[in-house]
Amino acid sequence: MKAFYLISYGGSEAVKFGDLPDPVVGNDQLLIQVKAVSINPVDYKVKSGDLKMIVGSKFPKIVGSDFAGIVKEAGPEIKNFKAGDRVYGAVSIILRNPGVLCELITIHPKNARHIPEGMSFDEAASLPVAALTALNGLRKCCVTSGKNVLINGATGGVGHFAIQIAKAKGAVVTATCSAGNAELAKELGADEITGYSRDDLAKTGNKFDAILDAYGKMEYADVCRLLKQKGIYASTLFMPTSVFSSIFIQLVYRKKLTSSNMRSKPEDYEEIEKLFNEKKLKPLIETRFTIEKAAEAFELAEKGKPRGKIIINT
Predict the structure, then answer these.
(1) Tens digits of per-residue pLDDT, 169-186?
(2) What is the CATH number of domain 2-127+284-313?
(3) Most buried one in 69, 100, 145, 264, CB count within 10 A?
């Protein structure tokens, strides 16, 4: 099969597009012909070697987490899927599973879902990591109807989903983004727009019940100033080293810091699918690449500040 894979960690010299052996389907596995893959920050962090202590250094290493495709074969122990089914989902490359940037993958059925009627392969591939991260972050922030929410990095992969999910919950949304993306943020549902620089945030007179930092780089001083008492801040880049700061801020300022990580329980997927079916959630896909051009897709994802999701078609 054709695949995009790492031969080492690093930049463009570390990647290759070529042939690898076809995977062999197990009795309790699905063999899937991949149609679309979306890129997430975890994918290019694996590529660069930032996570090598976790994912190991065995090469060749296929990257990519989110996928959509067609079941080619279902192992004899599989009951809920059959050949020809349209499916999507995500695999955890952090747990040293093979990635999905290739023509064929084998996965356990717990990592696959049927693609809802009316959803394209590209749309399905865009959802798992980013949309479920946004959903869980807003859940951790206790976002409900009438809550004032600030979404930082509001037109990126996680952020553009977060705006739509927060609005579907009835929240009042303020979005931070560049001036060039302000109109897009409004189209996604933001009630107010502001820039994301410290000067821009300093001019914001509002106080918020919740902040979802989809970009992950807000200063704690800004967070403490912008949050209401008992407000909650969730970051996609919240690290264990931030635990002390979190405890200090909660004790002194009565404001909570937490992480916005992906949660992938069936009910989470069901909520995302319901919002899609109700036309309250629409993936933004502005850029597509073929798998032969996957290196260019990674370059854009890491350095280009793309709007919405980047899709690679196999």
Answers:
(1) 999 999 999 999 999 999
(2) 3.90.180.10
(3) 100
